[in-house]
Amino acid sequence: MVLLVRYGELSLKSPYVRRQLEDRLVTNIQEMFAANRVECVVKRERGRVFVHAEDEGAAVRLLRRVFGIVSLSPAKETASDLERLTEFVADYAHSLLAGGMTFAIRPRRSGEHPYTSQDLARVLGQAVRDAIPGVSVDLEAPDRTIHVEVRGPRAYMFHEIADGPGGLPIGSQGEVLAAAEDETGMVATWLVMRRGCRPRVAGREPLVAALRAWDPGLQVLERTSGAQLLRLAVEKGMPVVLPSREGLTVGAKAPFVMTPLDGLSEDEVVALTRRIRDG
Predict the structure, then answer these.
(1) Mean pLDDT of the chain
(2) How many other C-beta atoms can be found within 10 angstroms of the C-beta atom of residue 38?
């Protein structure tokens, strides 16, 4: 089993920064799987990360908790020559389609091939119609969409796309101090984790445990008051993450305070709380 892992924001960076972020993403995937005792092999190509794992369900669950991943798909792999690819897609469609259903082929290519994406859509669509009587093409609202991604000598078929958390790989943007004494603090901490920061968290264990599921290497501080956390931030020269600035008083030596919940509605915070707990 291979899982295609997609990232978005990383691809907008300069080549040097992009390589650093891709390296961090691959390392984070490996650490997430190792911490949960799930075996995997991770390979990287431009614009994609490929994760080979025996346990598909566990792999999908873990990858959906790796920051920097926009989406992922369990996929089948074959050679990219047109004859073999056509046979493979027709066979793949048998598990998805039956007479009376509609489908669409969505091809993408990377590299040099003796066919275009339009050729692929036409040839593969005809092969599916020939293999499964009674099916028809519907490009607007198909019952099933078969994605075909051709990359050099290999091709990948998939029909499911699971969302990842997006953002930047954790550990790529420095460290922060954070308080997770309640659910709003947990959500605020998670949001800066999604921006690549690695937090040192003080808070209640059920909330800290929920965050640890997103970062197996999460650093946990002894529970402390907000004032003590601010003093520690000044001492360490680190930003501090808080749910809000309400009631906040700082002295002359004030740390940089991050309040990522600013501008979010209560419904959005509730939805994020559910996402964090459910993984």
Answers:
(1) 92
(2) 16
